[in-house]
Amino acid sequence: MVIQENMSLQRKLEILSDAAKYDVACTSSGVDRKGSQGSMGNSVACGICHSFSADGRCISLLKILFTNECIFDCKYCINRSSNDIVRASFTPQEVCELTMEFYKRNYIEGLFLSSGILVSPNYTMELILETIRLLREVHRFNGYIHCKAIPGADPVLIETLGWYTDRMSVNLELPTAESLKELAPHKNRKNILKPIRQIQLRREHNKEFIGITDNTVSSPKMITGREDNDIKEIVTTKTSLVPYQKPVGINRRYVPAGQSTQIIIGATKETDYQIMSVSQALYDNFDLKRVFYSAFMNINQDNRLPATTQGPPLLREHRLYQADWLLRFYGFHTNELLDEKNPNFNVLLDPKCDWALRHLDLFPVEVNKADYYTLLRVPGIGTNSARRIIMARKSAVLDFKDLKRLGIVLKRAVYFITCNGRTMYPIKIDENFITRQLLSIKDRLPFGIDKDITYQQLSLFDDVNFQINPSQAMKIANI
Question: May I ask which residue range the UniProt record assigns to the signal sequence (predicted)?
Fold first, then answer.
């Protein structure tokens, strides 16, 4: 460990902002709060850190660790206690100074604050709580704050912090208890799940208290995979709320933007089916807003970690994000996408295309008659385009020209739909035929498949550039 005394604030910022880059569970969405007299800032439907929101705005958060010192020795973490790296810690006043000065200069719209474990979970949580309290009460900062809850900390501290923040997250780290025991033996899976459950219960209670109707989770739903016991035990155990600790003067809901978590993939041997089963259980039983998937990077070069000679599994991460999108917005369930006999996603096709090819008996779908949820299952038709179809066909009978104008991706959808009982051109409804059309030439393979293409970060939501053959493309272009 390298310790430097009298470190400047700028140097601390360099170290602790760089250390925070490995935490991908950083969103700023789900809350809409206007500015108020006597305070500074607001929070209006923000998006992902350093990216674009749904309305096209570029959003930035100050993303830092409070400290990169840590008492734990997780094998996959750059900040583990056995690593010889430069260590730094902010004070609560320094975080407040950075946040306010950056906000005044219009550099940021909010704060994302995570941390290593300094001294103990309680000690670290107290420092984080003091930081956020100073921002809200002393500096009157009304902007967006996303904060990490520390597993093992006193529930009263976590409870109090939730009244000051917009979103909270507790990282699950690894998909199963077995893998956590193998690579992070100092951590306990149940200790990680308990604050997630605590935050969920307080959010539900707060909604009921102020009269917001919502579909709250009252009993465990169907859980699959090897993580049944841990999740079921936490969900089914009768848990009482900690003492009501809403600070005086706080006029907002408890964690209004919900909570998220992060799972590292590729560090252990879990299949995609096991990972997605855990995600499904978290969505169904803990009311999470997002599960983030972080491709494992062997930054420590530890012989207890898997070799990554071909780079991080970014394509696998991409497929998991696409499948996660299907769970949250398209009405799919993990058991429809994968099972014990087919435990991993096809890297050559996005999960919805792969599912459609394995269920060709359900296709083609007539776009002028199918309901909204049936349309959502057609490759090339998303949530927005499905709504456009439902609205447009109230006043017209749609054909392929109309579908193109409505934003349907015909190069995929054309194999799975009919308009007025007709396909766009003669198509053989056969799994091998359609697959060959989608993957007919080399440059249509996803990024990272070819050995000459280096790994790169992919879009979370857009499908890769599959195309049909040139003669078919000409027909589409001429409609």
Answer: none
